[in-house]
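Give me structure tokens for this 297-residue protein.
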Amino acid sequence: MDVQSGPKKVHRRNWGMKLLVFGSSGFLGSHLMRVASAGDSNELSVTGISEKFRSEPEIQALNLEGLDVIIYCAALANLEDCEKNPEYAFWVNSEIPRLLCQKIRGTKTKFVYISTDAVFDGSKSFVEEQDSTNPKSVYGKSKLQGEENVSGLDMHNLICRVNFFGSSPKNNSLFDYFYENLIEKKKTKGFSNIFFTPISAITLSGTILDLIKAQASGIYHVCGSERISKLDFGVMIEQLLLGSSGLVEPFSFTQAPSSPVRSLDLSMSIKKLTNLGISLPPLSSQLIETIEKRRII
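Here you go.
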């Protein structure tokens, strides 16, 4: 299948490259497509492809000639779904990226793989890129295998480990959960013992493009700088929407024996990112921007 025959959007930014976004209708992919369209220049063309590929021949049939960058946002990210169907999780999260990297090997095309904080076990706060990985879930293991497949084929490829928030196309993200309940003035719960370093999908999208423009390669943690509990994240949304009304209540996460293992500390360090000269707005500003855009959907 030629990518030009599938669903696509062509947008522009302010520097000259041809990009292909896999998973363009998904959570991050849809934001990335919108952010890449910002600006008045006609020098960046971005094509999105959202098909689900089920076999190697489908990948081999793709026409990837003439591309500067492929950004792989496609993923099977639901932990429960990955545990129920590990073979498909490894196909989407590690095998398709491997096949794509093999297909473009020896060309000028750069591959950008979107990974996750789930490659860590949560035993350390603000983990850095060189820290040992130890995924506990099928999802984390399949994404780590994806990292290894991508980096093993070309050391100049870029791997972004992320943990982002925003309005998802399916309206089922953590941000959506808090936003919907709080708008309706419903009591809602936030985990007081799960910590992360969130970045908005909007800011993340722009930062990925900045890394590409900087010709970055290797592994980068692309997340927020502020470690916060999911309870306090909900409280921040509540304060921005309603003021301090006490609707978000603390709840302690307890691991169920039959559920996928979830790490309690998902925080990552962005020291390597900031050393590259990339700065991020504070979490509060990112939340305000996300809320404003959510209100007009």
